[in-house]
Each structure stands twice: as structure tokens, then as C-alpha cells.
Specification:
Blueprint (H helix, E strand, L loop, with lengths): L3 E7 L16 H8 L1 H16 L3 E5 L10 H16 L3 E5 L19 E3 L6 E7 L2 E8 L23 E7 L16 H5 L5 E5 L5 E5 L3 E4 L15 E8 L2 E9 L3 E9 L6 H19 L3 E12 L2 H4 L2 H12 L9 E12 L3 H4 L5 H11 L3 H12 L9 H4 L4 H24 L2
Parallel strand pairs: 1-2, 2-3, 3-4, 6-7, 7-8, 8-10, 13-14, 14-15
Antiparallel strand pairs: 1-11, 5-6, 9-10, 11-12
């Protein structure tokens, strides 16, 4: 008889994240941001109920801090109780943000919740109608910094079941996160499991989409401007001991955006204001009814370059774009500006001038061909390959990348030379 079951894989809830640096937000919006991890958790619980899953996997960092605030514990327990009323089991490990080395009083968890012990791999079986369909293996962090790998201790038991590894880890040394409980992708593939439910990396990533499936779901709610794009979890359906369905489900209630706004075509201030307003509305549509916090990156060569580099002007633009946003459920709040505009330069005219900027521009144009690129590689980059650190970066450098460097050097050089002539 065909056997099937389903589960949701989530990680990095970071309940009660403090969201520091939100002082400029109006009180109403600040409260929504501070409450966002709880709303995302509520969305996760509701998703489990709506999808009628058999169990929920939580791969670490349930709480944002090891002292786990009472408010966070209450919210977490209430969600688990909702799942218990629907017969949904929960299997969880603790990670580097919420290790099991603290002695503070913690609330007891409902009987449907299975917490893996610290520092030692254990397993729990999931049964239905007296038959074990899946066995979940996991380990919680006994302290905040775990430098050793737990993978050798993951030993699959004999049995006709679907084996899941639940692990808070850094695969292949992702440099954006601390290298805790490190493992290699190849090691996970050959460990003999059917599914690896990972946590710790906040960006969703399917590392291996065949047997075994290995993935990070990312965190359930973005927490700063570096954590852009949708956030959520994965719904997984297993039939006959194989993953038959794998789909991402958003749980976030607000999103962060970094948007580039190219202002080269703007000759009048009003044109730039209209462009920024239109970009704001594009973000509102992308957010799909959620609140949004945005950082605009202004780029391009423009006659308005001095205008955008005036902090008072930026403050006035920001105030205009924020107007009435705090009253909307789908607010778009302009958090900040990053100004990367350049002075307007008439390149055609510059090419005819017998000036230092003109000579520089003419010289840089000569290097925009492959013959010169090969010369740069031979005369400039080849000697660097003898350096034990630099050769790692330059060995695989393509001709196209070298050409991009030349173009960037041209832009930077012209900016400095033209600004110097203008006395700015």
C-alpha cells in the first residue's frame, strides 16, 4: 500500500528580535516591525493547519537570544498548542542563538513537541496507524559556538522508514554566517539520509534537489535591509519514501528592499521626484499587501548630482515620500538613501579636448579592446599570480571581468579629474 505524509520545514524564527536602529519610524510602524517575527510565526502555524501536515520541523534559532524572553516563550508555546489540537507533531533543535546552556526558567512545552538534546544526536520516530513512516534525527547546540561537526554522529538506524536529519549548520563555509557545526555538501549527500532539514543560513537555498533533498528554508521574517526578498518555509510531501512535492511558502508580514534608481535621464528636480514616487509604488505592488522598508540607491550621471549630494534635499525628498504612509497597511517606508550619482560629463566633447581629463579619457578608450585586455593580463595580472593570497582571486579572472575593471577605472578617474578641475 502506498504510504504518504507531509511536513513543513522552517528555521531561524528569531522570535522577539529587538530590531535596533528603528528610532526614526513612527510609533505605529515601529510596533509593527517589532511584532513582525511573531506575526510570521503565526502565519507559519496557520500554514501547517491549512496544509494539514503531519509534522513541523524547526531547524534552530527559535529565539533571537539565549535568555529567550518570556513573551517569546508564551507566543511559541501558544503556537505549539494550536498544532497539538490539530494532531500535528513538532520536532525542533536549538541553534547558536538559543543554545541549551542557560539555566533560566523556561516554560514547559506541549506533549506534541519533541526537543532534541544538546550535543548528542538522538532520534524520534513519527508513526501513523501503528506504522513508523519517518524517523527524525537531530541535535541541539549545548553552547552558542559549536566549532566541531556533528555529522559523524548521524547514523541511520535499520528500518523501512524515511530518514530526516535536522541540523543547524554551515554548509561549505558560507562566509556570510558564522562557521558553526560545519559540514560539506558532499558529506551530507553520502550520509545515507533521505532529507536534510537545515537551519542557520537566512537565505533559502536548495543545496541538493535529488535524493537526498538538502535545503535551507531561510528565516521566516526578514530582519534588516540585508535580508531582502520573500521569507518563509518549505512544504514537503513524501510518498513511497521519496519527495514528490517541494514548494516554498511565504510567511513574512513585511519586506525589506534595496532598489536602484537610475536618474541619468532626469534633467529637472520634478522628474526625479516623479521617478522616485513611481519606484515607491512599484515596491508596494511587489510587496503584495505587506509593509515594506526600502533603501533607494541613486545612480547615474546627471546634472542633478550636486542636488542629490545635499543632505537637506535628501531629507526633504524622504519626508515627501513618507507622507501618509504610516496610515496604510501596505506601507512603503523609505528607510534611507545611498547616493552614487556622478557629475554629468559630455564624453564626446571630452574626447576632442587637449586637457588632462581629455587625455585620460582617450587613453582609457584605447584599452576597450581585447588586444589591450590581454596586455593587461600579461603585464599587470600575471606577476600577481606568484602571490599566495592574490592568485586565488586572479587565476580565474575572465577577459570580460578585466574589461569591466577598465570601465570602472575610467569612471572613477574621470570623476576625480573633472571634480578637481572644477575645484569641488
Amino acid at each position: 500500500m502506498s504510504q504518504s505524509f507531509s511536513f513543513i520545514h522552517a528555521a531561524d524564527l528569531h522570535l522577539d528580535t529587538p530590531f535596533t536602529g528603528m528610532g526614526s519610524l513612527p510609533q505605529k510602524l515601529r510596533e509593527r516591525v517589532l511584532h513582525s517575527t511573531f506575526v510570521a510565526y503565526e502565519n507559519l502555524i496557520q500554514l501547517c493547519i491549512e496544509r494539514n501536515v503531519d509534522f513541523l520541523l524547526l531547524a534552530g534559532d527559535i529565539y533571537d537570544a539565549s535568555d529567550r524572553s518570556l513573551r517569546a516563550q508564551i507566543y511559541f508555546r501558544e503556537g505549539l498548542e494550536k498544532l497539538a489540537r490539530h494532531g500535528i507533531q513538532v520536532y525542533l533543535v536549538h541553534g547558536n542563538h538559543d543554545p541549551l546552556d542557560r539555566k533560566e526558567l523556561s516554560l514547559s512545552l506541549p506533549v506534541n513537541t519533541h526537543v532534541f538534546p544538546p550535543g548528542q544526536v538522538a532520534s524520534y520516530g513519527y508513526e501513523r496507524d501503528g506504522k513508523e513512516l519517518a524517523r527524525i534525527y537531530g541535535v541541539s547546540y549545548p553552547r552558542s559556538q559549536v566549532k566541531e561537526s556533528y555529522l559523524p554522529a548521524f547514523k541511520r538506524e535499520e528500518g523501512d522508514f524515511f530518514a530526516i536529519g535536522l541540523l543547524h549548520t554551515n554548509v561549505d563555509g558560507n562566509s556570510a554566517h558564522d562557521n558553526y557545526a560545519p559540514v560539506a555538501r558532499a558529506e551530507l549527500i553520502h550520509q545515507g539520509f533521505d532529507y536534510w532539514a537545515l537551519g542557520h543560513i537566512h537565505q533559502k537555498n536548495i543545496i541538493h534537489n535529488e535524493e537526498p533533498v538538502i535545503l535551507y528554508p531561510g528565516n521566516i521574517q526578514g530582519r534588516n535591509v540585508k535580508e531582502t526578498s520573500e521569507r518563509g518555509c518549505y512544504f514537503v510531501k513524501v510518498q513511497d519514501k521519496k519527495v514528490r512535492e517541494l514548494s516554498f511558502c511565504a510567511t513574512d508580514c513585511l519586506r525589506w528592499y534595496q532598489e536602484e534608481v537610475h536618474v541619468s535621464d532626469c534633467e529637472q528636480i520634478q522628474e526625479s521626484l516623479d521617478l522616485l514616487e513611481a519606484k515607491k509604488e512599484e515596491v508596494r505592488i511587489q510587496a503584495g499587501g505587506r509593509g515594506a522598508l526600502v533603501r533607494f540607491h541613486l545612480t547615474g550621471r546627471t546634472s542633478l548630482h550636486p542636488f542629490f549630494h545635499d543632505e537637506k534635499n535628501l531629507a526633504d525628498i524622504q519626508e515627501m515620500l513618507r507622507r501618509q504612509e504610516e496610515e496604510r497597511d501596505d506601507f512603503v517606508w523609505i528607510d534611507s538613501f545611498a547616493v552614487g550619482t556622478r557629475p554629468l560629463i559630455q564624453l564626446e566633447q571630452l574626447a576632442e579636448e587637449e586637457t588632462l581629463p581629455g587625455d585620460f579619457y582617450q587613453l582609457s578608450q584605447e584599452y576597450r579592446n581585447m588586444e589591450k585586455v590581454h596586455r593587461v593580463r600579461k603585464d599587470v595580472l600575471t606577476p600577481l599570480l606568484d602571490h599566495y593570497l592574490l592568485r586565488v582571486y586572479f587565476r580565474t579572472l575572465s577577459d570580460e571581468e578585466i574589461l569591466e575593471w577598465i570601465e570602472e577605472a575610467e569612471t572613477l578617474g574621470l570623476d576625480l579629474l573633472v571634480s578637481g578641475e572644477d575645484g569641488k
